Amino acid sequence: MAADRVRDGHRIAELLASELESGETHDALAVTDADPEVTPTPDGALAYRVLDRRSEEVIAEVFVQPDRAYVEFRVAPETAASAAEEAGLRVRPKAVQPPQTVVFVEDGAQVKWVLGAFTAVIDPAPDGG
Hints:
The protein is an alpha+beta fold. 29% of the residues lie in helices and 29% in strands.
């Protein structure tokens, strides 16, 4: 049992990949293009992409920095931002076309918090939100 929080970006990304692949959050989520040897960089290095198996669409990319991981949601950025903020995660918009949302996962405990954003993005509420 670990007494300290996991604050290594590579390890946080591994924990998130395990959760996504487990099917417990949503069985439509899949990790693809994984680089198990990725070296964290200050700007963030691509660790893997997350795909919606139903549409084969990449919905997010996960990047690693030395002390955290972050997720760039490529679809439904407002939905991802809302769900992540509700979970207590730090969120910022990414000014690209089409718009994206960046969600920071700063320790291992926050891995569980970000899972709701993935679910919200692939199964939006009936009212579109």
